[in-house]
Amino acid sequence: MVVIEPVSTGSSTEENRDRKKLLEDDDYQPAAAREASASDGFETASDGEHDDLGKAEADTTASQERQDSRQEEALSEDQLIQRTLTQVNDAKLEGNKLFGAGQYEEALAKYELALHAAPDKPEFVEIRSICHANRATCFSKLRKYEDAIKESTKALELNPGYAKALNRRAEAHEKLEHFDEAIADLKKILELEPSNVQASRTIRHLEPKAELKREKMKEEMIDLLTEENYVSWSRSMQRALRARSKIRFINGDFQRPTDPADPLLDAWERCNDLV
């Protein structure tokens, strides 16, 4: 029997050697092994994730701020004024609601907020004047008439022809019995509104009070001057009496005057208690 042995070819031996060489070669590695090797000694993606996220958020915030700034710059002057006017008017309207509810202190705060938001520009003169006049009304309701006068005056400084502010100030003056000042404001209202019946009626009502107060003030002034003059005269007479008494003492006649006709008797009696 003939036994046939497997044929060993040279190519097979060379192929085995090539495979062995490839396995031993550093450049030939499975993909997973290469990735693990590449990561050795280096920061992995998961390790730097938080830092990258923080940087991204910071970049986003900065980008948004730049965008907002560009949008702000893109707004025209008229748009900025209109936006601010809307904010101021909203605060004023909130104040009006609070006033209507009888919450005068809270309304004052809202009007003050509106005034702070309104810049000192011509476009805001009217609404600033209105807010001051509304504050005057609140102060009148709180019976703080001096403050009401101050706020009305501020409103009139912005708008001299503001009849409502003149009326508010006139009412406050009347409450404080400043009748002449109230009449002056009411006359200004008539200059602006000649047909204002209420202003005319109030003037007729206040004029007698103003005259009575003027007369009373005159009397008080006369009394004050008389009192001052009397004190001055009494002190002078006292000095004269003392001088006369010294003379009488020297002459041995240091006595209270007894003759009703002696002018020093009246001075003695009046000045006896004066120092």
UniProtKB/TrEMBL annotation:
Residues 14-23, 47-58 have a biased composition (Basic and acidic residues). It comes from the Eukaryota. Pfam families: Retrotran_gag_3, TPR_1, TPR_8. Residues 1-78 are annotated as: Disordered. It comes from Dillenia turbinata. InterPro entries: Copia-like_N, TPR-like_helical_dom_sf, TPR_domain_protein, TPR_rpt. TPR repeats lie at residues 129-162, 163-196. This is Tetratricopeptide repeat 1. Residues 224-257 form the Retrotransposon Copia-like N-terminal domain. SUPFAM superfamilies: TPR-like. Keywords: TPR repeat.
